Hints:
By secondary structure, chain A is α+β, with helices and mostly antiparallel strands.
Amino acid sequence: xxxxxxKEQMTELNRLVAHYPEGKQKSALLPVxxxxxxxxxxxxxxxxxxxxxxxxxxxxIEVYEVATFYSMYHLKPMGKFIFEVCQTGPCMISGSENIxxxxxTQLGIQPGETTKDGLFSLKLVECLGACGYAPMMQVGKxxxxxxxxxxxxxxxxxxxxxxxx
Amino acid sequence: MGVKLLLEKAxxxxxxxxxxxxxxxxxxxxxxxxxxxxxxxxxxxxxKSGLRGRGGAGFPAGMKWSFIAKPEGVPRHLVCNADExxxxxxxxxxxxxxxxxxxxxxxxxxxxxxxxxDTYIYIRGEYAWVATILEEAILEAxxxxxxxxxxxxTGFDCMIHVHRGAGAYICGEETALIExxxxxxxxxxxxxxxxxxxxxxxxxTVVNNVETLAAxxxxxxxxxxxxxxxxxxxSTGTKLISACGNINKPGVYEIDMTIxxxxxxxxxxxxxxxxxxxxxxxxxxxxxxxxxxxxxxxLKTAKGETRYMNYESLSDGGFATGSMMGxxxxxxLDEDQCIVKNTLTLARFYRHESCGQCSPCREGTGWxxxxxxxxxxxxxxxxxxxxxxDIQRKIEGNTICPLGDAAAWPVxxxxxxxxxEFEWHINHKELAQTSNxxxxxxxxxxxxxx
Lengths: 165, 450
């Protein structure tokens, strides 16, 4: 098996599993899948899910059924930066549609697509709990709120710069 | 200024850190509860306070605690529900982000009262940075002896664990949350058995919302009776309201539940009025699943009485002319908003979030979204309105968990109060693509029969 956690990631795995009682290590599945996704290029290939199953001593199917249920796990390769833009009611009435259209134009992609350079993916998501700071999107672990066209430009420039660094 | 019990210290610089929180009187409630009070006395104070679950259902917290089974030799667990996902709701995030130690203090007292040695915070996966804030605060509390073994020499051991979800609204439902915490899909369980008897790992479990658990701190400090004096009737204490939509000052506000809806929307202390000088059209007062109300029924009840921001007044008139307090997610729509489109986004949300176990919800939410999409895109027929009504009625009450109801109610309420706007969409297919029905009569004074 080529996919493996390094020493640091192993330490984190053990810390996560230690939160649950002896024999209940399956409870760590969601947090461990987050760790795997972060560690293995931002998505979960079958190999990564099988590896997680072996680490937690559970069947691969127990991992697959969870990975396909929750919206934060990506089952195909994604761009380096994923723009997850909220489209639910409170964001919609605060102008999210214009923001989504603007991002599509600026990146030249439709929702569900990734730019050719592999830098950006656009994904429309449902309510992220930032309704008072709408319109908004999540990029990685960060919320970008009160979005305007200028702010979107600045965010795209910021990540382009970050990718070059 | 209203009474502030939870957010009183929110603006103190550095309150997120242990040292500042402690200097401001933090952890005094833990000292009082663990050193001076018996478990029975703590539960009694919570009962006396009249505190109702702040997640949305409004069930009395003290009563929920008293249901927990105590079989010999079986560990019990407290689980904090921080899976805040109801559209319009972002109050728990605020509380955890700015006052993490307030929640931890509430959790220690509640864990002591329930006998939970391992307490879990189930936080929605997207709030990743909030999870980090909580973990840092737990570390600080542990270093200072408030968590760990033999807390304050009482012999009580307690550890708090942060568990990140991964994107699923359904995990806010307590049995789905428990399944998820066990590393499974978030499929709600059939009740009974209730979590209080067989919950996490089939052990007795209590699941409480973040705000509910934070409210335990002022209740212990001031006593249940004093807490119950704030507010009105069965709406005791204070409530966090997350206000959003077309208002001047979106944000999280703590109210004492005696304020009128009109004052809450228009006063500068709270929402500051409708943005851009527009007029109020409608409002969803308690998170996206509660019935939407047109402006006139929002500000006054059908009897023509002032409506207040509390459990009883917001639900006055039942679903026919009232709504619900719900989670406190207060969504305001101005005169430019389209009710059909707003309802469509909510129907899409619930279709996306249905776990798929129960056919009425799995199929029905998809049909509702498709029909609303059809009407919104100018292809609707008049019979579609009755079809929507029929579908929502067949979902409500026919599912394992309340997500079915939550999906049905917004559609039902939109048709109930805004049927003429749906009809306008169908009769003016082209016009509806470029303009809105507008305010029309929704803000007219209510006719009260003499």
